[in-house]
Amino acid sequence: MAGVRRERRRREETPFVNRHDEMARLAAALERAESHALGAIVILAGIGIMSGNLAARIVAVIVVGVSLIVNFAAIPVYPVWSLVAIAIELLVLWALIVHGRELKT
Asked: Closest Cα partner for 58 from 71, 44, 70, 74?
Protein backbone atom coordinates (compact mmCIF):
# COMPACT_ATOMS: atom_id res chain seq x y z
CA MET A 1 0.00 0.00 0.00
CA ALA A 2 2.83 2.41 0.83
CA GLY A 3 4.46 1.66 -2.52
CA VAL A 4 1.28 2.63 -4.36
CA ARG A 5 1.07 5.90 -2.43
CA ARG A 6 4.70 6.68 -3.17
CA GLU A 7 4.16 5.95 -6.86
CA ARG A 8 1.02 8.12 -6.96
CA ARG A 9 2.81 10.97 -5.16
CA ARG A 10 5.75 10.69 -7.56
CA ARG A 11 3.38 10.92 -10.56
CA GLU A 12 1.70 14.00 -9.08
CA GLU A 13 5.07 15.65 -8.62
CA THR A 14 6.05 15.09 -12.25
CA PRO A 15 5.91 18.47 -14.04
CA PHE A 16 3.55 17.66 -16.93
CA VAL A 17 1.48 14.68 -15.77
CA ASN A 18 -2.19 15.42 -15.01
CA ARG A 19 -1.86 19.06 -16.06
CA HIS A 20 -3.86 19.05 -19.28
CA ASP A 21 -5.56 22.39 -18.56
CA GLU A 22 -2.26 24.13 -17.88
CA MET A 23 -0.71 22.64 -21.00
CA ALA A 24 -3.70 23.77 -23.09
CA ARG A 25 -3.36 27.32 -21.73
CA LEU A 26 0.38 27.24 -22.44
CA ALA A 27 -0.22 26.05 -26.00
CA ALA A 28 -2.80 28.79 -26.57
CA ALA A 29 -0.40 31.41 -25.20
CA LEU A 30 2.37 30.18 -27.52
CA GLU A 31 0.02 30.33 -30.51
CA ARG A 32 -0.87 33.93 -29.65
CA ALA A 33 2.81 34.81 -29.27
CA GLU A 34 3.61 33.28 -32.66
CA SER A 35 0.73 35.18 -34.23
CA HIS A 36 1.88 38.48 -32.73
CA ALA A 37 5.48 37.88 -33.81
CA LEU A 38 4.41 37.10 -37.38
CA GLY A 39 2.18 40.18 -37.38
CA ALA A 40 5.09 42.35 -36.26
CA ILE A 41 7.29 40.91 -39.01
CA VAL A 42 4.62 41.64 -41.62
CA ILE A 43 4.15 45.22 -40.36
CA LEU A 44 7.91 45.86 -40.41
CA ALA A 45 8.17 44.34 -43.88
CA GLY A 46 5.33 46.60 -45.06
CA ILE A 47 7.07 49.67 -43.70
CA GLY A 48 10.28 48.55 -45.35
CA ILE A 49 8.56 47.92 -48.67
CA MET A 50 7.09 51.42 -48.67
CA SER A 51 10.59 52.82 -48.16
CA GLY A 52 11.97 50.71 -51.03
CA ASN A 53 14.04 48.30 -48.94
CA LEU A 54 15.10 45.17 -50.84
CA ALA A 55 15.44 43.05 -47.68
CA ALA A 56 11.84 43.88 -46.74
CA ARG A 57 10.70 42.78 -50.20
CA ILE A 58 12.52 39.48 -49.76
CA VAL A 59 10.93 38.93 -46.34
CA ALA A 60 7.50 39.78 -47.74
CA VAL A 61 7.94 37.36 -50.65
CA ILE A 62 8.92 34.61 -48.20
CA VAL A 63 5.95 35.32 -45.90
CA VAL A 64 3.50 35.43 -48.81
CA GLY A 65 4.99 32.23 -50.23
CA VAL A 66 4.59 30.40 -46.93
CA SER A 67 1.05 31.68 -46.61
CA LEU A 68 0.36 30.51 -50.16
CA ILE A 69 1.55 27.00 -49.31
CA VAL A 70 -0.51 26.94 -46.10
CA ASN A 71 -3.66 28.05 -47.93
CA PHE A 72 -3.02 25.49 -50.65
CA ALA A 73 -2.88 22.79 -47.97
CA ALA A 74 -6.13 24.13 -46.44
CA ILE A 75 -8.18 23.77 -49.64
CA PRO A 76 -9.87 20.52 -48.49
CA VAL A 77 -10.98 22.18 -45.24
CA TYR A 78 -11.88 25.69 -46.47
CA PRO A 79 -12.22 25.47 -50.27
CA VAL A 80 -13.75 28.87 -51.05
CA TRP A 81 -11.74 30.91 -48.55
CA SER A 82 -8.50 29.17 -49.50
CA LEU A 83 -9.00 29.86 -53.20
CA VAL A 84 -9.83 33.52 -52.54
CA ALA A 85 -6.75 33.86 -50.30
CA ILE A 86 -4.56 32.13 -52.91
CA ALA A 87 -5.77 34.52 -55.61
CA ILE A 88 -5.03 37.56 -53.43
CA GLU A 89 -1.64 36.18 -52.42
CA LEU A 90 -0.71 35.54 -56.04
CA LEU A 91 -1.54 39.16 -56.86
CA VAL A 92 0.52 40.41 -53.92
CA LEU A 93 3.42 38.14 -54.89
CA TRP A 94 3.28 39.36 -58.49
CA ALA A 95 3.21 42.99 -57.35
CA LEU A 96 6.16 42.48 -55.00
CA ILE A 97 8.29 40.75 -57.60
CA VAL A 98 7.41 42.77 -60.70
CA HIS A 99 6.74 46.26 -59.34
CA GLY A 100 8.83 46.31 -56.17
CA ARG A 101 11.61 48.46 -57.62
CA GLU A 102 9.22 51.26 -58.52
CA LEU A 103 9.06 52.39 -54.89
CA LYS A 104 12.79 53.24 -54.90
CA THR A 105 12.32 56.09 -57.35
From this structure: 44
